[in-house]
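WARN  no MSA supplied for this record, continuing single-sequence
INFO  ligand: 5'-deoxyadenosine
INFO  echoing inputs
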Amino acid sequence: MPSVYIKTYGCQMNERDSEAVAAQLVAKGYTLAASEFEADVVLLNTCSVRDHAEQKAIHKMENLTASIRKHRPEVVFGFMGCMAQSRGQALIDRLPDVDLVVGTQKFHHTADYLDELLQGRRKKIVDTGTEPGSEATVKEHLLNGTAKHKSVTAFVSIMQGCNQYCTYCIVPYTRGEERSRSIPDLVAECRQLVMQGVREITLLGQIVTSYGKRFKAQSAPAMGQVVAPGFDPHSDKSAFVQLIEAVHAIEGLERIRFTSPHPKGYGDDLVAAYGRLPKLVESAHLPVQSGSDRVLKLMHRGYTRERFLEIVRKLRAVRPGMGLTTDIIVGFPGETEEDFAATVSLCREVEFDNAFLFKYSPRQDTPAATMPDSLPQEVIEERHGRLLEVVNQIGKRKYEALIGSEMQILVEGPSRRNAARMMGRTPCNKLVLFDGSPRHRGQLLPVRIVRTGNFTLYGDPAIVGL
Ligand code: 5AD
Ligand code: SF4
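INFO  complex generated
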């Protein structure tokens, strides 16, 4: 059987989609190649969120086709994911060596399309259509398929798409309308993962706080049958909180996380869930994007700076150790020095454990791309540098404040950088390295934090009783 290599760009959704495609291919008998140079099929799963991500994937494909096709003309090259969705046939027009373009609602057809290409039945395939029910097709996990050891953590895709239409964002166009999976379907997937040894599950979606909101309109006809959502739309608890409760009830599961919520949908029921549900560990990635009300409005975010701060206060009141991270866009069109100062002051006020900073990148067909007063690149770079310094300083302080404390970590396996060390995560989602042994994998261990590195903690091996 042929071998496949998948390279992934972008967010955790893409990682998850790649994993599901890989698992589907493995189930059909494909093997996973160790590198793109040994593979019979090379797929790039792409990101469109910023221009830089698109250019990287295009250059990679140019280089790959140029170096591999010469010696191995039979290798199949394909694009998947967001850029595949937004550019479609144009990718083949530009890169004629590409054989396959699979959009974001068509991942599950990849295996069939590869069969057709490998058997020479078709020369090129582009499929970027919409497909009812596609939200429920990213189900398969690799877990033990290739890894020598069992996975301790897993991602579960609970919904696809986004209807928020932030003015800078291409996601609603590349991922489509919000479509949620049913609670029974999701619980079955999570249960299966736990049976295979998974201890921590991260519920994934572009905007998980909108989970279930458009359920009937999207999923029921999609599956060709009536699908029970498994939640009560009239409850005072949101569908998302009901989903968390259902996953929480799974025996053997130790930890639940989710990403990304939207501040607009961050109701008191979700804050209260952190107080009630012990498996919902104390970390929250809460994208703020800007600290200026004026910019938030231009971005169509649907909340104010004060509302965001209120959510943070409420979360910290329920779980004082809450690890908080965020996303921020620097240099949105029309961002003044005063707007930027508001973002800096918000970072100082909240004291995020970490913040992911993005330089604004105009995306085709988004409203912001044609807004007036776009900023010169050097202004964006300069503000980005200034904010990065603030964010890093605060992060460093927050990490250092943990020195001496004892924290429970879930041990995931050997450190990626240094296999002699083990690594785990605290409930507040901080990476901890310690001198453990492989038998600790999958265990919840108390460790004492002894020092910090760059957004990393080091645990004292004496505490784990080695
Ligand atoms: N330019 C820069 N950053 C962007 N993001 C989304 N769209 C853009 C864009 N056009 C950022 C947001 C989002 C993160 C995943 O990417 O901060 O939360
Ligand atoms: Fe994009 Fe906004 Fe939807 Fe997030 S909420 S995916 S930033 S449109």
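The first helix runs from residue 12 to 27.
INFO  checksum written, moving to next record
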